[in-house]
């Protein structure tokens, strides 16, 4: 059995979006020989010797964002149970009665209250509410039950216990005995054993045994090494009604189109190599979650879906409803992608029509494209199905954004969270996928117009347009592909030519520049360090596979180091000769000299 560790060697480096680096110490009292303490958020985590450490400082953004999302989810859920949560430093969001006055004036900060807390205050004279603070166990049945299925060192769970209010219990599970022991030590070291329990079991079995309505978890967090697909079926069953699923995927090579057949076997969707591959990856995992939930008459409501660094992260609410599940087919779509110009079209899997109080469902009609692309004449690739509905709940995202921007000292990556969430709120929610401006220009071999010029041209033409958090030069618009190409043709000719009834105007409009760009928010983070992405998978026993790590370093920047001189190829062995199939003999440009150990393999 594999160990579900995040096999990342610990390095003292500046996390993505942080204002300072993670603090490490090896001189604290009570440490075993070779152990190190890593501080992140309010947690101080014990790690074993260097070659068995599984900590990636770049993922601090992931953990900070998760804490922010769960905080707002808890605020909504517990308000319905008569529980009010308190966050240190969140003075502007502490509930104040709307009728209270300070120095004769109504408190100006009451406008920042969440709606559910305003309602609680309005009913304050009729009912008393419980207050929940961070680090305290929310007793009886009001608190949230949290499961981290693949906890490794327990860092994420310890941070939950120290930073999230309103929790009844946290189960930090890992299949490795060493990991489970380390989780228990870290819980004790941080004085959160009253909330956090370590578990050493298979994550799927833990969730399958919690399928009963009284045993389900309010929040399930899965952050595996690679694909979460083996755990999704259990997760959609083990989360409570209206509960929160937090899923991370780091197998981006599969989801971004390098291996479409593997993507289909894991997620039930064929990925395509394209410029919009990062948003497509988000829609693939959402499709997979909805498809698996539908089997049990459940459905998903995406709250927030982000593509950052080397992974994607989705937060979805899971509910039950047979009538709503019937809409599942109409929420999915096949994707037709032109291999020449990159134009794409979506084909919904199902069709629904309203007939009075009832809905009529039927098969969709199509396809939306001909045998070849109408713009360049090239063939189409077929991908998907993917989730074709909105991937964010803007109302919920705005609540998270308001809480983070109002309490910037809570997280070290607050600036980046604010930048990413601001871009999310600006995205066109009803438009799946996007085009990339420099790719449009390179297709016709012309200079690239500025983003403001291209966005202005679309706005002048009467279409909506937005950026995307998933790609720096993305253009998300309701304009059809022919309009985009008309604008590019106008730019190539003389910027004013009338083509197919469209006269492109590139005069800069004020609304072409989004607020996140005007405010110079941290939207797209630079690489924090060399080789900062996901590392090699952990071996049984907790150590890192040095062979795989060396192989990855060897192929870093391989495109920049391509050999153009054929004489240099003699230093590389001939693969066909090693298999005994090379027919070029001495004329072969590769080496036929066998290295030590190769002859034994051939024998």
From TrEMBL:
Where in the numbering of this chain does the C3H1-type domain appear? Answer: 568-595
The record's annotation in CDD domains points to: AdoMet_MTases
Transmembrane regions: none
Q: List compositional bias (Acidic residues) regions by residue number.
A: 109-123
Instruction: Give the compositionally biased regions (Low complexity).
Output: 15-30
- Sample GO molecular function, one term: tRNA binding
Instruction: Please tell me one Gene Ontology term that the record gives under cellular component.
Output: nucleus
The cross-references to InterPro entries, in alphabetical order and at most eight, read: SAM-dependent_MTases_sf (IPR029063), Trm1 (IPR002905), tRNA_met_Trm1_C (IPR042296), Znf_CCCH (IPR000571), Znf_CCCH_sf (IPR036855)
UniProt keyword list: Metal-binding, Methyltransferase, RNA-binding, S-adenosyl-L-methionine, Transferase, tRNA processing, tRNA-binding, Zinc, Zinc-finger
Q: Does the keyword Hydrolase apply?
A: no
- EC class: transferase
Region Disordered, annotated ranges: 1-34, 99-125, 530-566
Keyword Transferase appears in the UniProt entry? yes
Q: Which GO terms describe its biological process?
A: tRNA N2-guanine methylation
Spell out the reaction equation it catalyses.
Answer: guanosine(26) in tRNA + 2 S-adenosyl-L-methionine = N(2)-dimethylguanosine(26) in tRNA + 2 S-adenosyl-L-homocysteine + 2 H(+)
Q: What is its EC number?
A: 2.1.1.216
Family membership: Belongs to the class I-like SAM-binding methyltransferase superfamily. Trm1 family.
Q: Name the PANTHER family for this protein.
A: N 2 ,N 2 -DIMETHYLGUANOSINE TRNA METHYLTRANSFERASE, TRNA (GUANINE(26)-N(2))-DIMETHYLTRANSFERASE
Q: Tell me the protein's name.
A: tRNA (guanine(26)-N(2))-dimethyltransferase
* Organism, as annotated: Cyprinus carpio
